[in-house]
Amino acid sequence: MPTLAPEAPPTSRPALRRRAAFTLVAVVIATLLGASAAPTPLYELYQSNWGFSSLQSTLVFGIYALSLLLALLTVGSLSDYVGRRPVLITALAFEAVSMIMFATAEGIGLLLLARVVQGFATGAAISALGSTLLDLERTPGRGATVNSIAPTAGLALGAIGSSLISEHLPRPTSTVFLVLLALFVAEILGIWAAPETAVRQKGALASMRPALAVPATARRMLVATGPCLIAVWALGGFYLSLGPSLARNALDVHTSLIGAVMVATLTGTGALAVFLLRNVAARRILAVGASALVAGVAVTLVGAETSSAPLILAGTAVAGIGFGAGFQGTIRTVMPLAEPHERAGLLSSIYVIAYLANSLPALVAGYLVGQVGLVDTTRIYGGLVIVLAAAALLRKAPVSTS
Predict the structure, then answer these.
(1) How far is CA 45 from CA 52, 347, 399, in A?
(2) Mean pLDDT along residues 40-44
(3) Residue 12 has pLDDT above 70, yes or no
(4) For the domain with range 210-401, which CATH number is right: 2.40.50.140, 1.20.1250.20, 3.10.290.10, 3.90.330.10?
(5) What distance in Å separates the CA atoms of residue 105 and residue 192, rounded to the nearest whole number?
(6) Exposure string (b/e) for 342-376, b if CB count within 10 Å is 16 or more?
(7) Would you place residue 398 in the very low, low, confident or very high pLDDT band (cuts 50, 70, 90)?
(8) Structural domain boundaries of the chain?
(9) Does the domain spanning 14-197 belong to CATH 3.30.200.20?
(10) The dihedral formed by the CA atoms of 272, 273, 279 and 280, expressed in degrees to the nearest 10
């Protein structure tokens, strides 16, 4: 069985201590997910400049998720074989290229291509990053907790930051991506100086054959937590693709900030929930997450029907608790069941399920908006999330020791 690389780094290059490297990896996760949310507040500008439709908005979001899925299915386990650092440096370099493409886009064609490159880069990096956190953790469970907090915190910061930059700085559709480009260049240098935590092993090419790598010890638990995981990411997909349109339609407010506030409320309360529940038993976290999803989405639907800003924001905040707790509960119950050399493959499989739930329902919703309108689409989508969360709440997961 492969073992972790020794802690002492090679002397031929500078190296971060493991604690600093752990923090760096968490920041990289947050930055990657923040960059994925950066286009969301800009959809209104794109619509004004290029005549964007709701279907095109969900296509820009969905093509990112599908490209990310392709990366997870092909190179998601690669860091288990060639090492974490080579995969991360390459992925961040492609992410930086996508930022240049976003900054120079003048139409939907280059924007879609940028999302494809960004999605593949994120998919290539995300399982390696999560596995590195687990490799570097000194306190059991800390890596899984940070791996749940960093993505949700990053989504919140990315949405709010993109909105503020686009409204208050010149070149609103370019500046935010140039800022992110600078961050990714700095992070590439940081990862280069970080210690390697995985030993190279044979089988890299074979690992790139599209497949889901779920160890037998984790399959039953992954199936049991699946409905909650799907509900969580389906809800996130709706907010990141159609959330701004819902806010403007329900509240009659025309500013990119309102959509960003909705995304940040969902993901920010999700990050807070992960932090507050970090010492709670995994099965209880799943129950909290499923319950909060049911209640929060129900309140949000009532707010949308009555055009009530307080109800929409309150419902979004409660749903955000479910967003964070549901994902944390899945990670906390499933990941400890994998051996170190199985971590990247299992985490890739979790993210495959997550991003299928994140993208496909959102694409269908974008189509439905053109057929039945945004309000009816929101009712259907919200009802689906409630049913999935209720199913997760009623289904008992196998006992986990985490």
Answers:
(1) 9, 35, 48
(2) 79
(3) no
(4) 1.20.1250.20
(5) 30
(6) bbbbbbbbbbbbbbbbbbbbbbbbbebbeeeebee
(7) low
(8) 14-197, 210-401
(9) no
(10) 170
Q: pLDDT at position 255, please? A: 66
Q: Which two tokens stand for residue 265?
A: 């409320």
pLDDT for 117-141, tens place per residue?
A: 999 999 999 888 988 888 888 777 7
The two three-digit tokens of residue 43, written as one number: 């959809």
Give the Cα separation of 308 and 81 in Å (integer). Answer: 52
Please name the amino acid found at residue 9: P
Amino acid identity for residue 251 in this structure: L
Q: Which residues contact 267 (CB under 8 A, 6 or more apart)?
A: 37, 152, 153, 155, 156, 159, 236, 320, 323, 324
Contact yes or no for 103/184 (Cβ under 8 A): no
The yes-or-no verdict on residue 14 having pLDDT over 60 is no
For residue 198, the SS3 value is strand
Quickly tell me which residue has 């999560």 as its tokens: 130
Q: Which class for 2: exposed (0-12), middle (13-18), buried (19 or more C-beta within 10 A)?
A: middle
Q: Which amino acid is at 324?
A: G
For 208, the token pair is 């790139």
